[in-house]
Specification:
Length: 412
């Protein structure tokens, strides 16, 4: 499987190219950002490959805009869902990551079956740093556990055996679910073995913030021996100031294969989806892990201090922005209940910079400068392992440079 993958920032994604001398020079985009109805929140900040025998394994991508990591099958780049590295055991969550790598080799200690390493832009009590997570903890967190293959050596594939030695069959790949050691762990909890029945996968929306009120929800369903009779997709919704409502049936499809339905929602909400299928004799599969998308709170909901003005701007989220060039100008949103906060703003070559406070604490300084003008840019502020209720305050720290705020996302 001779391939090269390239990650493109801004409204980019992941491109795949053939690696053989005679392959075409044009690539294929296999992963898109949310601006192109994909699942990656700007930017793609690192890609890596987990290798498995027989072409197995995964393409992994860091989604900086959503503080999540996405897994795709190595053969056909099919999305398998996303995970977060949350706080726990005295270690803070990973946010704003800028680079990842993975190895399937066991290195001893808490990493007998390999590990994922990621840069972490901000530590709650110190400087930016790197976080390591055991691969077996990540693999076990998926409803259908990922491959764990610590003995496969991708760099020795095809190497001849030693003279006079008998061929040694490769050991089988295994999937294990040992207790996770101390340190950060993926947010989806390890699930029990799936009961007999059809298998359902949510392939969209992924877990991210989206600046469009309409977005696709996609799923696939298949049975090992029996035909699929129906697939039920449930949805639950939380407002930015409240908790989730109950799960309720949102869509139903009949037969197997792939289905896509558009979710037409409102602003300032988090929409979560899960699905399961029933086969022709009544066998019911397991629910998928939920996938959630958050639509931001509009800028007009925030209280604007002196120096700001409201503007109607075509192409922005809900058609408005709150703008200023005054240093020290403040914009405040109160009453939110969330686990993840992001700023939605326009970035440009001459744009300024802001700090963002949650409660009384400044948690991030954000530059709004970019090589070209980008509207509806989702810029992560902070994420937590539990719900936080606190005011969000945006303070302009630049002087004489435009700051154009489009919204604030309060995700669950």
């Amino acid at each position: 499987m001779q391939r090269i993958y390239l990650a493109q920032e801004d409204i980019g994604g992941i491109w795949r190219y053939g690696a053989e001398p005679g392959d075409p020079v044009t690539g294929t985009k296999v992963v898109s950002t949310t601006e192109d109805n994909g699942e990656i929140g700007q930017d793609v900040k690192g890609i890596t490959i987990y290798y498995g025998r027989g072409g197995g394994g995964y393409l992994l991508a860091a989604s900086q805009g959503t503080n999540t990591f996405h897994a795709y099958t190595r053969d056909d780049n099919r999305p398998l869902g996303a995970f977060e590295i949350v706080d726990g055991n005295g270690v803070d969550a990973v946010t704003g990551m800028d680079g990842i790598d993975v190895t399937n080799f066991g290195v001893g200690g808490p990493f007998p079956q390999g590990f994922l390493v990621t840069q972490d832009t901000k530590d709650d009590v110190g400087n930016q740093n790197f976080k390591l997570v055991p691969w077996q903890a990540i693999a076990a967190a998926y409803p259908q556990p990922l491959l764990v293959d610590p003995t496969y050596d991708a760099y020795q594939t095809g190497a001849p055996p030693a003279p006079g030695s008998a061929p040694v069959p490769p050991p089988p790949a295994t999937t294990s679910t040992p207790p996770a050691p101390a340190g950060p762990a993926p947010s989806p909890p390890p699930s029990a073995p799936a009961p007999a029945g059809p298998v359902t996968r949510l392939t969209a929306p992924g877990s991210t913030t989206v600046t469009r009120l309409r977005f696709p929800v996609s799923w696939t369903s298949s049975g090992s021996t029996l035909a699929i009779a129906r697939t039920e997709v449930q949805r639950r919704v939380a407002t930015w100031r409240g908790g989730f409502g109950a799960w309720s049936t949102w869509a139903t499809s009949h037969g197997g294969g792939s289905t896509t339905v558009t979710n037409a929602g409102g602003a300032a909400r988090t929409y979560c989806f899960r699905a399961r299928s029933t086969d022709a004799v009544g066998g019911v599969g397991a629910w998928t892990a939920e996938q959630c998308r958050t639509t931001p709170v509009d800028d007009r909901t925030a209280r604007a201090g002196q120096g700001w003005r409201r503007a109607k701007v075509t192409g922005t989220y809900l058609g408005t922005e709150t703008v200023t060039a005054r240093q020290g100008a403040r914009l405040t949103l109160t009453g939110g209940h969330g686990t993840a906060y992001s700023l939605v703003a326009t970035t440009c070559r001459s744009c300024g910079a802001v700090t963002v406070s949650l409660g009384a604490r400044v948690v991030r300084r954000i530059s709004l400068t970019s090589a070209r003008t980008l509207e509806r840019r989702v810029l992560p502020i902070a994420s937590y392992g539990r719900v936080h209720t606190q005011a969000v305050r945006v303070t302009v720290v630049s002087s004489g440079k435009p700051v154009e705020v489009d919204g604030i996302a309060v995700g669950r």
